[in-house]
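Can't paste images in this forum, so I'm doing it all in text. The chain is below; anyone willing to post the predicted structure tokens underneath?
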Amino acid sequence: MKSIKALSLLILFAAFVTVPARPQEVKRLTLDEVVRLASEQSPNALIAKHRFRASYWQYRTFVADYRPILSLSGNLPDYSTAYSRVWNSVTQQWEYASTNVLQTSGSLSLAQNIGFTGGSISLYSDMTYEKNFETEGERYITSPLNVRLTQPLFRYNELRWQKKIEPLKYEEARKTYLRDVENVHMMAVQYFFNLALAQINREIAETNMQNADTLYQIAKGRYNLGTIAEDELLQMELSYLNAGTAINESEMNLRDRELKLRSFLGFNQSVRLELLIPNEVPELKVDVSEVLRLAEQNNPELIALERQLVEAQSSVAQARAEKGLNANLTASYGLRDQDPLLDQAYQQPNQQQTIRVGFSLPILDWGQGRGRYKMAKSSEELTRVQVEQSRNDFEQSLLLDVQQFNMQNDQVKIAAKSDTVAAKMFEVTKQRFLIGKIDVLDLNNADTKKDQNKRNYIQALNNYWTYYYNMRALTLFDFITRKPLETDYEKLVE
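Text version of the structure:
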């Protein structure tokens, strides 16, 4: 099976390298550059941007509810024909008469919601032209100025609760966008180090191939001199063949990882990527109390928990209002007149006033209102418990993340030192093998440790930067520059 797998990889690699080459641009990127490009042009960053846009326009719609709205409405035309039965006193019998009326009307209104009370006030002016084709009569009905007040009494004030909920939702959306960008950064880190590890594996495979070839040639000479047994020679030959297979596997893995990063950054096939692996990491430790304070201020999950509790309270208020007396006050004052001539219809308008109080009171609803109120109250208590539990879980998880991050700097240093020691150990072991002091198994063991410690160093760098951007996502704060994460939200909706 191993030989079949190796043959398949060789065929795939041969097919890859025989494809006609096209001119390619080589981009050598650092980790910072990959992170920056990811936030600017990756599909995930664009998704976060469009998600914020939807929340932004929802908030703008809410803000518009508290601003005066000027509107024009009308009917152009309104024509009706009807037949009605009328009594003819002359002929002393019933007759049918037709009515053909054409109306054209228009109205201009200015309305303003009152958030504190939940009511609304409006100013409006309207005019209607009416023509009766049966009598050939026409008239203008005008209302130059009218004021109307609509005020709910003992009812659920939706506007007041929206004023509490919608700003929280918008602030949550703002923070969520910044968090989503940091999640994109973490994805960029993963793609970067996946490709970096593939590059290292390719370098390791090439070095091992050179070493295996040199050692195999030396082993053949020793075998001819009779200083080593045939099994040792065969072991060196096997190591040489495996090194060739490892090169092909590492090349295919390198191209696969490069393709994924290139796609993530939005580059086309004409771009080749080469990564510059960072050799150092910032000497950085974060304070637990500071992280908790910043997370409390900025984390969208905690803002969402606050919003959920307010929404539950709103549901309780609505259920309480709907189970009792509901009333609505409507009052209006205006001027009205009519005349066959348009200019005369505005000369001497008459006053008109209306006051109306409508109400509804459930007398027998079989406990529906009370049941809805009890359910809303129970849901509020459940939400309160869940919010408190979620806060505690979040804080505990955050403390663990802080501890993990504060360990990463030491982990990188240890991994770097282990990489250096393992490389020196292999060179010493190889020299001892060349003079016949150790056998091939000891050499292979030293070679394996050398390769593994090189990979461990790359993984340690990966862990450091992953935890770093995770801390940024949790707090929306850059601990290197000591500045909060910000963006120009207005540009996002252009």
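Strands lie at 25-29, 69-88, 93-114, 119-132, 137-153, 271-275, 326-339, 350-360, 477-478, 483-484. The chain is about 60% helix and 25% strand.
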